[in-house]
Amino acid sequence: MTDWNRRQWIATAAGITGLAGIEDMALAFDADAYGQNRSGTPRAARPRSKMKISKFKATVVASPDFALLNSWNVHDTHFKRTILELETDDGFTGVAEVAAGAVQDLEANRDKVLGRDPFEIEYFRRQFKTPNAFGAVEVACLDIIGKAINRRVVDLIGGAYREAQQFSAYIFFVMPTPNGPDYSTPESVARQFQEFNKKYGFTSCKFKGGVLHPDKEVEALRMMRAAMPNAKLRIDPNAAWSVETSVRVAKAIEPLDMEYYEDPTPGLDGMAAVRRQTKIPLATNMVVTKMEHIVPAIQKGSVDVVLLDNHYMGGLNNVRYWAAICEAMGWGCSGHSNNHLGISMAMMTHMNCSISRVQYDADSHYPWTTEDIIKGPMLQFKDGKMALPDAAGLGVEIDADKMAKLVENLKRAGNRHEQLKKWDPTYPLNDHRIRW
Predict the structure, then answer these.
(1) 65 and 31, same domain (yes or no)
(2) Do residues 337 and 384 share a domain?
């Protein structure tokens, strides 16, 4: 068999026909043979989007917050968010919501977004220094694309595995203030969970610990279990406990049939040490947050569950990569949350509903939100679930009057440090450390 006959036979076996001579071989195997198929037959021009982003606006807003306590501080009077608005030259708009600190990176890349096609998401990913700023641009672009083709964002990131996502109650100790509730004892936070169950239908509880002495928090979990025998319970002290304390608490709460134990102690080594000494699965949104954390987490045996967050992990598409890695590693997935408005609530619902690996009820601060930014009423939980919006894109729109009010709130936003000092002079102020 001649060399040419051998090549022709290989091409035919690959389903490529119509090659008259050696000079046609480039059409079969050259990826740069534009305008023709590799079989040598003409092909249609690749369809392209002609949309261009013509407007870019990033606005910091503030919404009232409760005096929620965590292991290092108390929440400020308002939580701040950056709202991103994009618009194309043919009139399609997209919105996103992200942490307030992302506004600098967004503004720094304004000129790299303007004039670009909203489909160029990978290009945008390479421009931004911070994952959360890129995540905002990606979500706003997906909102535009969804509206342009009349599909929901969930349909652009793999489709809806479920039409509604189950969420958990996010239970906090709340410092007493003149105009706010007092949930500062084990009895009161156990009651708070029952109230959230009655109001929203939540049957699982993420309990923010690291606030009172660990024994008090164990007491609160025991009260929750006694009041709601079938509830799914978790505790998250944000790494405020030593390995020794974490193990002691684990032994105390193992009889409560905990769903998982989130970030009890700092670092991959500390988590691994705790995990070796308890049968409760260990979850994290603190020690496995970047791709470079994955290999050491596997080697050390640090975690069982990873909380997904498109802000921290660099967009909705990146979160799907994370979920695939978790599935390969046998790790479970849940959804993470910080204080947020209705735009993020919609985004979180699209994210969680698209990922089959999200096996645990997702977190949400949304029940603590009192002033929203979206048109119409706030999004509603039913039987503990949030359903996907029906409209194209994210399914929510900005109410201009509500947004103006949230911008005005910036003038009134402040911290509660003086109140915290009066309530507990020994309480940390922006000091992340092991407390017990």
Answers:
(1) no
(2) yes
Say if 199 falls within a structural domain.
yes
Percent residues over pLDDT 90 in the chain: 86
Does the active-site annotation cover 208?
Answer: yes
Task: Provide the residue type at 177 as one letter.
Answer: T
- Reading the block at residue 280, the tokens are 């409760």
Calculate the CA dihedral of residues 352, 353, 354, 360 and round it to 10 degrees.
50
Q: Give the structural domain span for 29.
A: 1-47
**Burial degree of 7 (CB within 10 A; 0-12, 13-18, 19+):** middle
Quick one: 288 and 348 in the same domain?
yes
Q: Rounded to an integer, what distance in angstroms lies between the CA atom of residue 332 and that of residue 305?
A: 4
* Active-site hit among 147, 232, 336, 365: 336
Q: Using CA atoms, how far apart are residues 4 and 27, in angstroms rounded to an integer? A: 15
Q: Quick one: 73 and 189 in the same domain? A: no
Residues 6+ apart with CB under 8 A from 301: 272, 275, 276
Q: Is there a domain that residue 69 lies in? A: yes
CATH number at residue 69: 3.30.390.10
Query: Do residue 116 and residue 249 come from a single domain?
Result: no
Token pair in block for residue 6? 């051998």
What CA dihedral angle connects 294, 295, 298 and 302, to 10 degrees?
-60
- pLDDT at 167 exceeding the cut of 60: yes
One-letter amino acid for residue 135 of the chain: G
Do 164 and 150 reside in the same domain of the chain?
Answer: no
What is the overall mean pLDDT for the chain? 92
Q: Which amino acid is at 197?
A: N
pLDDT tens-place string over residues 68-99: 999 999 999 999 999 999 999 999 999 999 99
| DSSP strand pairing (164-166 vs 385-387) | antiparallel
Say whether both 212 and 283 belong to one domain: yes
Q: Is residue 413 part of a domain?
A: no
User: Does 336 participate in catalysis according to the annotation?
Assistant: yes
Whether residue 110 has pLDDT greater than 50 = yes
Identify the active-site residue in 80, 208, 311, 402: 208
pLDDT digits (tens, 9 = 90+) for 292-339: 999 999 999 999 999 999 998 999 999 999 999 999 999 999 999 999
> Which of 102, 136, 155 marks a domain boundary?
155
H or E, element range at 147: helix 131-149
pLDDT of residue 28: 46
Q: pLDDT of 348-373, one tens digit each? A: 999 999 999 999 999 999 999 999 99
- The total number of structural domains in the chain stands at 3
Give the three-class secondary structure for 208: strand
- Please say which residue of 155, 176, 203 terminates a domain: 155
Residues 131 and 169 in one domain: no
